[in-house]
Task: inverse folding
RNA sequence: GAACCAUUAGCUCAGUCGGCAGAGCACCUGACUCUUAAUCAGGGUGUCGAUGGUUCGAGUCCAUCAUGGCUCACCA
């Protein structure tokens, strides 16, 4: 933010000084409001002629000599106010003339209808609650600079009313997710954000340092391993809704810190998690939007359960024309991928290649809610192997609007198998894969006491909110997205 | 991390072939007691993102850098 003061800011500071000279406190005490703007408009018939107290920000001012109209904006919306010299007296009217757009005032008066029919508050008294020293963005176009909108979200919220709607919806979506899970007797818990090692997902972490312990700490990239420890401890239905951090690029679908909800249920499997996913998402949509059919970027999406299920192998066969039932070796898999034009790292395993092909050719075809089930072992280090095919796992991901919104599996509860999977991950780490997971000895230790059969599910809240609110960028659903600081 | 686009007044944006820095809103001065993008009469308030270069002369052309957007890569 620049230190320089524009001419307009100088004028406002002069007005501030003048108000003080007149004995006006420019940053007043709280104003005891009785109504909000939309209240007065919506209940005009009942409220006409009643004393009303409102407070808000002056958004427009239209002076006509000895009378003025202005628009007052509070949290509910805007209402027109009308101030006359005859009603206010000369001194107060002069004080009003020292106000600017953006100032926050409290008004008391009565509602009436203008000749043009607009519900308006005829102000008898007003009080300055906060003087605004900077001009607001322009009133027709508002604030459109995407950069400034994110950096100065408060301005965005003041002048672009639709922005607030999205964040109200976000809040309600999160609230309904909690309601739904609490209703099923899931217990909301909080686990550490700072980890001594990273796991539960494949991602590079943020690193920080604890002075007293003189140790390196990582910001969590997932909540999974702690929640499963709770399952070991006998907390049979738990969830955590919170922020996780991944040290990766920024895009319209990625922010370095984002919100996930992870849900774990003992004596459940991935099939139960599938039902939970479709019921949760469709119920939330029904409660928040009153429908399970939503538009996303112009196309209708039907969230009504049950959602279609398709194995990854079948999906690849359908959309990429490759039949992985006939591809046995890693080498064959790699050459098929190369034929399809993919760049494949040397030494990639069959399952990893399969996942690459899926992401390249299938993901962007999954607009309607769809479950893709049975993921290869190689890309699922925490999921249980299928008994009839140990190269695959009991895992699914849910897709909506061509975006992955949920990832779930029957949790691997065999400590020996889990140790081996970690060892594979560590080998990948040593081979230079910074996203590979670290061996979590303490987690293995807990598994060795015995973890019941468990279903686990993770949902990306930001992605889900994006899709449900028809927002094209993740930054539209994060109040303060990560930005490089400006000098 | 790579390509492309953008950066000019408080905000939204024009700026032609390289020749005095522009508009609307906002702001300032004045008029106006039912306006609502109020109106009317005046007033331009600027480090043209930064630094170099080419040129008699650069907002404009070139190079580098910065920031943002977008597409891709990575990922969720």
Result:
């Amino acid at each position: 933010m620049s230190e320089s003061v524009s001419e307009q800011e100088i004028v406002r500071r002069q007005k501030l000084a003048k108000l003080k000279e007149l004995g006006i406190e420019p940053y007043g005490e709280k104003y005891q409001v009785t109504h909000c703007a939309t209240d007065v408009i919506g209940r005009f018939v009942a409220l006409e002629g009643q004393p009303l107290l409102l407070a808000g920000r002056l958004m427009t001012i239209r002076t006509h000599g000895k009378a003025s109209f202005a628009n007052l904006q509070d949290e509910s919306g805007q209402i027109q106010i009308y101030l006359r010299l005859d009603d206010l007296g000369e001194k107060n009217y002069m004080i009003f003339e020292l106000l600017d757009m953006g100032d926050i005032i409290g008004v008391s008066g009565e509602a009436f209808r203008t000749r043009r029919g607009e519900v308006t508050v005829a102000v008898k008294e007003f009080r300055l609650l906060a003087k605004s020293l900077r001009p607001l963005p322009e009133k027709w176009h508002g604030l459109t600079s995407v950069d400034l909108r994110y950096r100065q979200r408060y301005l965005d919220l003041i002048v672009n009313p639709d922005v607030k709607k999205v964040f109200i919806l976000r809040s309600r979506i999160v609230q309904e997710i909690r309601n739904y899970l609490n209703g099923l007797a899931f217990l909301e818990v909080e686990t550490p954000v700072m980890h001594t090692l990273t796991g539960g997902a494949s991602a590079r972490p943020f690193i920080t340092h604890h002075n007293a312990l003189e140790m390196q700490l990582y910001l969590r990239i997932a909540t999974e391993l702690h929640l499963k420890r709770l399952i070991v401890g006998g907390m049979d239905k738990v969830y955590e809704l919170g922020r996780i951090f991944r040290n990766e690029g920024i895009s319209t679908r990625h922010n370095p810190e984002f919100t996930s909800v992870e849900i774990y249920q003992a004596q459940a499997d991935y099939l139960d998690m599938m039902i939970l996913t479709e019921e949760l998402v469709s119920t939330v949509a029904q409660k928040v939007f009153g429908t399970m059919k939503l538009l996303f970027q112009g196309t209708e999406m039907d969230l009504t359960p049950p959602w279609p299920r398709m194995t990854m192998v079948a999906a690849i066969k359908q959309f990429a024309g490759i039949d992985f039932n006939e591809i046995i070796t890693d080498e064959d898999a790699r050459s098929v991928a190369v034929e399809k034009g993919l760049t494949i790292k040397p030494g990639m395993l069959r399952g990893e290649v399969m996942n690459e092909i899926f992401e390249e050719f299938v993901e962007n075809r999954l607009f309607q809610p769809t479950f893709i089930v049975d993921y290869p072992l190689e890309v699922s280090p925490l999921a249980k192997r299928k008994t009839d095919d140990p190269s695959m796992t009991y895992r699914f991901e849910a897709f909506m609007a061509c975006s992955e919104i949920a990832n779930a599996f029957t949790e691997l509860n065999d400590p020996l198998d889990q140790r081996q999977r970690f060892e594979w991950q560590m080998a990948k780490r040593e081979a230079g894969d910074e996203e590979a997971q670290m061996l979590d000895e303490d987690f293995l230790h807990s598994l060795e006491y015995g973890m019941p059969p468990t279903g686990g599910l993770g949902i990306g809240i930001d992605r889900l909110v994006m899709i449900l609110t028809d927002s094209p960028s993740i930054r539209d659903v994060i109040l303060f997205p990560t930005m490089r600081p400006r000098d």
Chain A has two domains: 7-136, 159-308+368-477.
